[in-house]
């Protein structure tokens, strides 16, 4: 009896693992959480107000982000990780569309395709991952590098959060986002193939947390994303996991930083836009010069 119960639980977990978004970016660095707490305390922004008029700079902001996309594949077939330049362009277009409301746009500076099984399948934290990124990474800390590859761990993607880094350190080279190749627009990951995994992961790169980070009482430290106890899956309209007067609003299931299916994800909140620029100004701009890191390309 006990055995059957354990078996049933195992099967349930296995099924869940296949049917919900899996992002590996669960643990923001302590310094980033502390910074988010500080920004939240300082914020003049209130839900419902114009985010672009809430902070010191009242002018609508825009920011162009240099983007470098690296496709790393096992062999040159679509089911082994290879994507075409047209696929890259489609993913790039989705990123620009999804970030349009924030004023962020991306400038595609580099596209690389590399056949290397060890790199394509490298798990997070492995030597192969570090070697791959030491070779392929382009630009400075304000340059976004996205690696589109098979991964291996069952994840749709993962990304680094911004933090204080030392130029040329392993942390610097590892900075960027990894995205499952089949999550690109038209890819094979049913329910997650509109390219919004990249949008979600890049949100972490900007310093945004999951909407369910910290659950009802902890929250994601953004004022206008309603509290959410756990990740959403599918598109559960009306879901409300944190009830009571202290938790107004339904779960933010349409927010790019939740776990809903791609068709369900449609927005960043105004408060997230404010936070994105706060983190950008604090971490990425001061450490962003690419001049001193370009020489790294000679290591290839
Ligand atoms: Zn995530």
TrEMBL record:
It holds the Pfam family Peptidase_M43. It comes from the Eukaryota. GO terms for molecular function: metal ion binding; metallopeptidase activity. Keywords: Disulfide bond, Hydrolase, Metal-binding, Metalloprotease, Protease, Signal, Zinc. GO terms for biological process: proteolysis. Residues 190-278 form the Peptidase M43 pregnancy-associated plasma-A domain. Residues 1-19 form the signal peptide. CDD domains: ZnMc_pappalysin_like (cd04275). Belongs to the peptidase M43B family. This is Peptidase M43 pregnancy-associated plasma-A domain-containing protein.
């Amino acid at each position: 009896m006990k055995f059957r119960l354990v078996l049933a639980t195992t099967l349930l977990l296995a099924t869940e693992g296949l049917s919900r978004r899996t992002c590996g970016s669960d643990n923001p660095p302590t310094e980033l959480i502390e910074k988010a707490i500080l920004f939240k305390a300082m914020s003049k922004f209130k839900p419902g107000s114009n985010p672009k008029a809430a902070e010191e700079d009242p002018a609508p902001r825009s920011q162009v982000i240099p983007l470098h996309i690296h496709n790393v594949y096992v062999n040159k077939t679509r089911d082994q990780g290879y994507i075409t330049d047209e696929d890259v362009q489609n993913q790039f277009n989705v990123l620009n569309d999804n970030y349009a409301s924030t004023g962020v746009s991306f400038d595609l500076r580099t596209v690389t395709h590399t056949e290397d099984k060890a790199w394509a399948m490298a798990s997070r934290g492995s030597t192969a991952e570090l070697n791959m990124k030491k070779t392929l990474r382009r630009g400075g800390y304000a340059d976004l590098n996205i690696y589109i590859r098979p991964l291996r761990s069952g994840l749709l993607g993962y990304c680094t959060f911004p933090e204080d880094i030392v130029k040329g350190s392993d942390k610097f080279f590892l900075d960027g986002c990894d995205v499952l190749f089949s999550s690109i627009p038209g890819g094979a990951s049913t329910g997650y193939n509109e390219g919004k995994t990249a949008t979600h992961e890049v949100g972490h790169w900007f310093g945004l947390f999951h909407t369910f980070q910290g659950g009802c009482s902890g929250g994601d430290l953004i004022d206008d994303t309603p509290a959410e106890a756990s990740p959403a899956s599918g598109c559960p309209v009306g879901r409300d996991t944190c009830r009571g007067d202290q938790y107004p609003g339904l779960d933010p299931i349409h927010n790019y930083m939740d776990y809903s299916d791609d068709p369900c994800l449609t927005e960043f909140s105004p408060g997230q836009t404010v936070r994105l620029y706060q983190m950008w100004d604090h971490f990425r701009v001061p450490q962003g010069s690419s001049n001193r890191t370009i020489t790294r390309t000679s290591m290839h």
